[in-house]
Amino acid sequence: MDVPQLDSSSIVSLVESPVPIDQSRKVFPSIQYFSCNGILLITYADKIIMLWNPATRESRRIPSSKTGGHYNFCYFPRIEGYKIFRLGYGVVTDDINDMNIDIFSTKGNTWKSIGTFPPNYYFLGYNVVMTDGVVYMTAKRKENLSNYTILRFCLEKEQFQEELLFPYAIPRRRHVLFSLGEKLCLIRVLEGNHKVNREFWLYMMKTNSWNKILTLPLTLENCVRPLSFMKNGGIMFQKSDSSGFVAYNSTTHKLEQVNVAGIEELYFINIITYVETLSSLDW
């Protein structure tokens, strides 16, 4: 759905998947999906990797890499094609953190191994976020396990960059990375006086700086996940109970329920946004 256009008059319709979906409890939760330049990347049960344009119904099967892993992808105009990033385990070793990085280019239609995850860090097992052609991953330094850090990998140059610094220390289980619009977003959780506040920070690549854009008093029962900026200046969120959407009204500074026809009584494990395009997958 085109979230900047989403409002209470919107109607959602189902689009048939390019491949049959195994909805068993073992397989369905492991499906990964991402959006870039109007194209979706979907991985099914670690065996099927698919690029798909929902607008044209065109799809392209990507040769499978190694079993499992964390994926993401990005379009690069310079090569007029996409690169797919995979972080996952290679050959089983005694080192649980021995993870490999593989990259697929739609131009060459092949996977290649880049190397292993930096040996001085532990990957935290979640939060592989892509914005501006850079992959961001939460990790912790082996010599300092009390606080987490953010590693970044330039997908175009296919190499790690220096750590992404944050104005405050990032404590354990008190932050989450998301992509909000085309920017990296970090949610910082603050607890005190029987209240839980969530600060939303945006990373600005051009100035290499963080800007706090919003603070919301939210409990575990009503926490939200950011999805996209809206044309009216608000922000669209997915509700934590996966039942739908709320929007932050920048005028009233309140969260408002958004009711969309077609999704009543439906629940969503995850939601991604994309902007419709007629781009072909014939590269």
Automatic annotation (TrEMBL):
<feature type="domain" description="F-box associated beta-propeller type 1">
    <location>
        <begin position="12"/>
        <end position="275"/>
    </location>
</feature>
<dbReference type="InterPro" id="IPR050796">
    <property type="entry name" value="SCF_F-box_component"/>
</dbReference>
<dbReference type="InterPro" id="IPR006527">
    <property type="entry name" value="F-box-assoc_dom_typ1"/>
</dbReference>
<dbReference type="Pfam" id="PF07734">
    <property type="entry name" value="FBA_1"/>
</dbReference>
<dbReference type="InterPro" id="IPR015915">
    <property type="entry name" value="Kelch-typ_b-propeller"/>
</dbReference>
<dbReference type="InterPro" id="IPR011043">
    <property type="entry name" value="Gal_Oxase/kelch_b-propeller"/>
</dbReference>
<protein>
    <recommendedName>
        <fullName>F-box associated beta-propeller type 1 domain-containing protein</fullName>
    </recommendedName>
</protein>
<dbReference type="InterPro" id="IPR017451">
    <property type="entry name" value="F-box-assoc_interact_dom"/>
</dbReference>
